[in-house]
Design a protein that fits this description.
Layout: E1 2-4, E2 10-13, E3 26-30, H1 31-38, H2 50-67, E4 72-78, H3 87-90, H4 109-136, E5 140-142, E6 145-152, H5 157-167, E7 172-174, E8 185-188, E9 195-198, E10 203-209, E11 212-218, H6 220-229, E12 245-246, E13 249-250, H7 254-265, H8 271-279, H9 286-293, H10 299-314, E14 318-320, E15 325-327, H11 329-340, H12 350-360
Parallel strand pairs: 3-4, 3-7, 4-6, 7-8
Antiparallel strand pairs: 1-2, 5-6, 8-9, 10-11, 12-13, 14-15
Helix pairs in contact: 1-2, 1-4, 2-4, 6-9, 6-10, 7-8, 10-11
């Protein structure tokens, strides 16, 4: 069976008939994603009305609900003014989600046209979210299936979805956002649309992607992979890589490390040294991250490797141009951890999780 929504989103091929509804099961939906696609303009550049956008989102949600064998669905939005669990303030290396902000004065031609179109689209997204929340902030019914909405004003929708999954182990979550993969519970897998149950550490693997090798995975194992490779979508840097043997493997940035050593002792830089300095340290990409963590089978093993990577690069005094301040490597480590961690309860912290890892070792 091929599922394609009436507004053009392809839900892929489902090999079996739809599963029987599980009484009481709720599907928690990443509505930030739904609202983006539900407000896209047509080929003539005409945007849908708020009512049309809401109908698109509800149809998409109800299709996902059926695939998750859920009785009801809850749409989770991030409020535009949410502090996002303090992530903006926590950022040290570079501004959180700053890659989503563009200086309009630097654009011209096609770039400017594209930017202005996206800017206009964002306003439609914002209005659709507000209207959707007004309509469904109390439980309503879409045909026979209850539908509700949660507007997150303190955390991010990603957090509230993960919290809901931990609170009700029979619930299912759906999001194309890879961040949520670290949570334990039932995930409706984007693209394949089957339910994957994740428990604890999980696992990761390297596979071919459209632009090269990519790490895929679930559970807290995925969290540790993100700690090294970062998250470009949210402007989270992760950890840089240097030519240093860690976990019996050697990072490839030899010229950069050699340049640092030459500067320390006052030796002349080679052309290769200068090129490496101009380029700066490369981040731990997907392949390097996989090589460093592929033999780790527990959170404690991952914590040991990842902490050593941060200590190796950042040391005891790393200067942040963004903050104009010097930081210890452990502060950079916890910055990345706080930005990436999906909260399990509303008062959860990544420090709690790391303490659990240490205590259970």
């Amino acid at each position: 069976m091929r599922l394609v929504s009436q507004f053009g989103i392809d839900f892929g091929t489902v090999n079996a008939s739809l599963p029987t509804v599980v009484v009481g099961r709720v599907l928690h939906i990443d509505a930030d994603f739904c609202s983006y696609h539900g407000t896209l303009s047509d080929e003539d550049g005409v945007y849908p009305t708020a009512d049309e956008s809401i109908e698109r989102m509800v149809i998409q949600g109800d299709t996902l609900r059926a695939l998750a064998a859920a009785e009801s669905m809850c749409f989770h939005f991030t409020h535009p003014d949410s502090p996002k669990a303090g992530r903006y303030d926590a950022a040290i290396q570079q501004a959180y989600q700053d890659n989503r902000v563009v200086d309009e004065s630097t654009l011209s031609g096609e770039q400017l046209i594209t930017y202005l179109d996206r800017k206009k689209h964002k306003e439609y997204v914002k209005q659709a979210r507000i209207c959707f929340h007004k309509r469904y902030n109390t439980v309503t019914k879409y045909y026979e299936h209850p539908i509700s909405c949660h507007m997150e004003t303190e955390l991010e929708a990603d957090d509230s979805i993960t919290i809901a999954m931990y609170a009700d182990k029979d619930s299912v979550i759906w999001s194309p956002d890879k961040d949520l993969r670290m949570g334990s519970g039932k995930h409706l897998v984007e693209g394949d649309y089957y339910i994957k149950e994740v428990n604890g550490f999980g696992g990761c693997y390297l596979k071919d992607g459209p632009s090269g090798k990519e790490n895929k995975g679930y559970g807290t194992c995925w969290f540790w992979h993100q700690m090294l490779q970062g998250d470009g979508a949210d402007n989270i840097k992760g950890c840089a890589k240097l030519s240093k043997v860690i976990n019996d493997r050697e990072f490839p940035n030899k010229q950069l490390l050699d340049a640092y050593e030459r500067i320390k002792v006052g030796r002349k830089l080679t052309k290769a040294n200068q090129t490496a300095l101009d380029r700066g340290p490369a981040n731990c990409g997907h392949v390097t991250t996989h090589e460093l963590l592929k033999d780790c089978k527990t959170d404690m093993q991952c914590l040991t490797v990842v902490a050593e990577c941060y200590q190796t690069y950042y040391g005891d005094a790393w200067y942040s141009e963004y903050k104009d301040k010097t930081y210890h490597w452990s502060e950079i480590f916890y910055e990345s951890a706080k930005l990436l961690w999906m909260m399990r309860t509303r008062d959860d912290t990544v420090q709690q999780f790391i303490n659990e890892v240490k205590n259970n070792d």
